[in-house]
Amino acid sequence: MLHVLFGPDEFRASEALRSLRDTLDTDGSLASNTTTIPGRNLSPSELIQHASALPFLAPVRLVVVENLLTSLGSRRGLVDTWQPFLDFLPSMPETNHVVLIESPKRDDRDSSVARSPLLGALKQRPNVTVTEFQELKTWARGGPSEVAQWLQDRAVRRGISIQPQAIEAMAEMVGANLRALAAELEKLATYADGRTITADDVRLLTPMVREERIFDLVDAIVEGHAANALKLLRRMLDDGSETPAHVQLLVARQLRLLVRAPEI
Predict the structure, then answer these.
(1) What is the C-alpha to C-alpha distance for residues 108 and 72, in angstroms, rounded to an integer?
(2) 44 vs 50, 72, 84, 86, 236, CA distance in Å?
(3) What angle do helix axes 164-174 and 178-192 make, rounded to 10 degrees?
(4) 164-173: b (≥16 Cβ within 10 Å) or e
(5) What are residue 37's DSSP bridge partners?
(6) Fold of 146-205
(7) Ranges of CATH 1.10.8.60 domains, the chain
(8) pLDDT along the chain (264 residues), means of 10
């Protein structure tokens, strides 16, 4: 079986890989039957070799390939080059699982894996599962945001009691950074020590990450660092934590405060 995990939300992709590991590791032998290899410069024959090796004294073998599709891009002739691997897939041992996990740096995300011709070819194979992880939104109309719902679901899975107001406060203060949110949730659970986490707990212990990002953006604008300002702005818009109108409003407010500062 081949699994493809990709998308801008690298945290949920890594969580999916961890879940697959837990599912496959029925007898504790998976660690010694797991191979992790970088995708850059990997050839089809090398991947076939890894994917065809049988597990040693274990029921399954796992091969994790990092950023193969990202490194290959959309170059011409890609599918032809990788045709030997595509032809190999139907005969891959049933004991083996190959995971292509794509966690590119944020600056590399324009080379979208979704447009990869090789990914398109892989989707046509019956023993291939493809999962795309888009970054969740921190805002919604008439209900909880995607981030708030993710936090609620994670709290339930972790057996953590938390108020809805506390969840909304976390989403507001941290934004769509799920890795940071997961860490904050664990920290708050430790602090609450079994009781329900409240919004006051969040305000006490959780840093205002979103506000800090606005400060960084304003600093870059004022100092004339256009490239850095555009990069910060793009991150805020790409991760869905802010809308363009809200960013404009917050930046304008901070600039007004800077202009008025000498008068105070």
Answers:
(1) 12
(2) 10, 12, 7, 9, 37
(3) 140
(4) eebbbbbbbb
(5) 65
(6) Helicase, Ruva Protein; domain 3 (1.10.8)
(7) 146-205
(8) 94 97 97 97 98 97 97 91 98 98 65 87 95 87 88 97 95 86 96 96 81 76 84 72 74 79 61
CATH architecture of 2-132: 3-Layer(aba) Sandwich (3.40)
Q: What amino acid is encoded at 240 in this protein?
A: G
Phi-psi region of 138 (alpha: psi -120 to 50; beta: other; left: phi over 0): alpha
> Residues 175-224: pLDDT tens digits?
888 999 999 999 999 999 999 999 999 989 987 666 667 777 888 888 88
> Which contacts of 51-55 are long-range, i.e. CB under 8 A and separated by 24 or more positions?
51/88, 51/92, 51/96, 51/98, 52/88, 52/92, 52/93, 52/96, 53/96, 54/93, 54/95, 54/96, 55/29, 55/95, 55/96
